[in-house]
UniProtKB/TrEMBL annotation:
It comes from the Eukaryota. Residues 298-309 have a biased composition (Polar residues). This is Ceramide kinase. It comes from Capsella rubella. It catalyses: an N-acylsphing-4-enine + ATP = an N-acylsphing-4-enine 1-phosphate + ADP + H(+). PANTHER family: CERAMIDE KINASE, SPHINGOSINE KINASE. Its cofactor is Ca(2+). GO terms for cellular component: membrane. Residues 298-319 are annotated as: Disordered.
């Protein structure tokens, strides 16, 4: 091009740049005037003086630009943050984080739902995503896309409208032209988060790399970023063999254990069971439940006669007998037993632990993840991680299971294990035992093996004794309207599932400690029942055990911390009837307990004696061989990072 033309183009470009710079400075000046006007307006509306950052828990308000939303008046109170759009045009037809705003829209987030606040450096603040209708709004949108501000981001979560138990990460970025204003707000917010109690700062994390589909390490890699952002320190142990986590929890010194605010398992229900047992077996000292022979000898010494129960028996050989409360003298043979087999006393039975109990957490990476689904309502690693970081807390019942004999010819030698969700015999034991041969199939092995075991249709002869819950006890049954089942001439209380802030789980029993340490000192009117026959399966559920294969669980209204076990006895029946039972179990709203061949009992303790030679139990997904067995529930034994499923 000729030199004269090049000079003309250069001059035009320079003039255009100066014009744009002037327009930008005018807009910034107007924004500052607008901010000053809004501050004066909020000051005039309130008789009190305008509070500044650092002024304690009082109210605090400042104008900000919310990224992808528009101009807002940000306010802080004792409970959290709230913001209101200053220009109605920012609300009409716009979308803020997926929420359609109206003219008087106001959004908020509680401090209890915020897990981190961080400075986002100097950068761009964007206008609302949706198109705006007026030329003024279009011009402002274009400028905001080019405007840079000092920013800070508030990290929290949002519940899904359709699935309130599913928590999704949410980030709110606020921009301001003044660095000191952003820094002051950050200081105040971080101070408020520090005052949030029960939030962990140091965690011991066990990762099972081969759990479920073998993605345990990948799951932790995903959620570890959330812990880093929340400034939670984690010591991570990736297990290298079966029993690795158990050995660490058994050998770890209490001084080191108390330096952690919680112990986290990244894996399935069986892995969580391994960690719980490693902790409890070396520390918990409570009386053992009575063995089957203890109950039999006690009844014989009292000269009690058996009473035949009519109505529920399908086969003539089945028996159900009632015995009165065991005498207090039986307690003399009950010992305190530790993991090494020694028996010793305890000075204060009301406090079975030496030192406080750490909270446990579970991030799902297993095959079924029933414990996570029952305690958070969602099988989602991010949701579980947020429950841990935010310090949510509930208590879980645990089942103490004692094997007295491995085989019929074995000598009596107590062996203790704990289960947090379920213990099953017969069909359940066969499935878990056979599935060990097909671990290479991943979670699909349970479907394959379950079909094989169902087709075999094996039944086992056994004797079960259990404590009968008193129907007049408010803790045993829920005072609600009863309804008659369509296929049985019995009644059952209306089902009330366990939910967050459950009144049943939060109520304390008047006649027992929150941790029941005297398992056989029951009220005088308590009776023991005996049933004998052939069973396809025997199950004892601590919780509902909801999972993807059984959306309502084994017992839909089983609670997390009510101090009861749910004993389900499936008597020998035809294959079509058993298939009908399994079908009801696999559908939402089904009635798997509504059959003549199904016995359901709410109890605190039970004993089991196998009549045959083989006896394999499923303890939270782990194999447990026991010919003579007894179990009792320990109410509220396990503190857990969770809040219960939302309604």
């Amino acid at each position: 091009l000729p030199s004269s033309l090049r000079r003309l183009i250069s001059v035009n470009i320079l003039l255009t740049l100066k014009k744009k710079k002037l327009e930008f400075e005018i807009i910034i000046f107007r924004a500052k005037l607008f901010s000053d006007f809004e501050m004066e307006k909020s000051y005039d509306d309130d008789d009190s003086s305008f509070p500044h950052p650092g002024g304690g828990d009082g109210g605090l308000s400042s104008p900000f630009f919310l990224d992808h939303a528009g101009e807002v008046l940000l306010s802080r109170n004792q409970d959290g943050l709230s913001w209101k759009f200053l220009d109605s045009s920012d609300c009409e037809g716009t979308t803020c984080l997926g929420i359609i705003n109206s003219e008087d829209c106001k959004t908020e987030i509680k401090f209890s739902d915020i897990y981190a606040v961080e400075f986002a450096n100097y950068g761009l603040v964007h206008s609302p995503k949706s198109g705006l209708r007026h030329a003024k709004e279009c011009f402002r949108e274009r400028l905001l896309h080019t405007q840079e501000m000092y920013r800070f981001t508030v990290h929290g979560f949002q519940s899904s409208p359709k699935e309130p138990c599913l928590w999704k990460l949410a980030a709110f970025t606020f921009g301001h032209m003044d660095l000191q204003t952003c820094q002051s707000w950050m200081d105040q917010l971080n101070y408020s988060l520090i005052k949030e109690v029960d939030r962990p700062r140091n965690l011991l994390v066990f990762v099972h790399p081969r759990s479920g589909k073998g993605n345990g390490s990948k799951v932790w890699e995903t959620v570890s970023k959330i812990f880093i952002r929340a400034k939670v320190n984690t010591k991570v142990i990736v297990t290298e063999r079966a029993g690795h986590a158990f050995d660490v929890m058994t050998s770890i010194q209490n001084k080191e254990l108390h330096s952690y605010d919680g112990i986290i398992a990244v894996g399935g229900d069986g892995f969580f069971n391994e960690i719980i047992n490693g902790y409890l077996l070396s520390r918990l000292k409570v009386p053992l439940p009575p063995s089957p022979s203890d109950i039999f000898n006690s009844v014989q010494s009292r000269g009690s006669s058996s009473v035949q129960e009519q109505g529920d028996a399908v086969h003539g050989t089945d028996q159900k007998e009632h015995y009165p409360l065991l005498p207090d003298s039986v307690q003399e043979v009950m010992n305190f037993r530790t993991v090494n087999g020694s028996c010793e006393g305890i000075e204060d039975p009301n406090h079975p632990f030496s030192g406080g109990r750490p909270r446990f957490g579970l991030i799902p990476a297993g095959s079924t993840d029933a414990i996570v689904i029952c305690t958070t309502g969602a099988r989602d690693p991010v949701t579980s991680a947020l429950h841990i970081i935010l310090g949510r807390k509930i208590f879980l019942d645990a089942m103490q299971v004692v094997r007295w004999k491995t085989a019929s010819t074995s000598t009596i030698e107590p062996f203790i294990r704990y289960a947090a969700s379920f213990a099953g015999y017969g069909f359940y034991g066969d499935v878990i035992s056979e599935s060990e041969k097909y671990r290479w199939m991943g979670p699909k092995r349970y479907d394959y093996v379950g079909t094989k075991i169902f087709l075999k249709h094996r039944s086992y002869e056994a004797e079960v004794m259990f404590e009968e819950a008193d129907p007049d006890n408010g803790k045993a049954t829920t005072h609600t309207r009863s309804k008659t089942w369509p296929f049985r001439n019995t009644t059952r209380p209306e089902k009330i599932p366990c939910r967050a802030k459950c009144s049943i789980c939060n109520s304390k029993a008047e006649d027992e400690n929150i941790i029941r340490t005297t398992p056989i000192s029951y009220p005088e009117k308590t009776r023991w029942c005996r049933t004998k026959g052939r069973f396809l399966s025997i199950g004892a559920a601590v919780m509902s055990n909801r999972n993807e294969r059984a959306p309502d669980g084994l017992v839909v209204d089983a609670h997390l911390s009510d101090g009861f076990l749910h004993l389900i006895l499936i008597k020998d029946c035809s294959r079509p009837k058993y298939l009908w039972h399994l079908t009801e179990l696999a559908k939402r709203g089904g009635e798997p307990l509504n059959f003549e061949f199904v016995e359901y009992h709410k109890t605190r303790a039970f004993t089991f004696t196998s009549i045959g030679e083989e006896s394999v139990w499923n303890l939270d997904g782990e194999i447990f061989e026991a010919h003579h067995l007894s179990a009792q529930v320990l109410r509220g034994l396990i503190p857990l990072f969770a809040s219960g499923p939302e309604i």
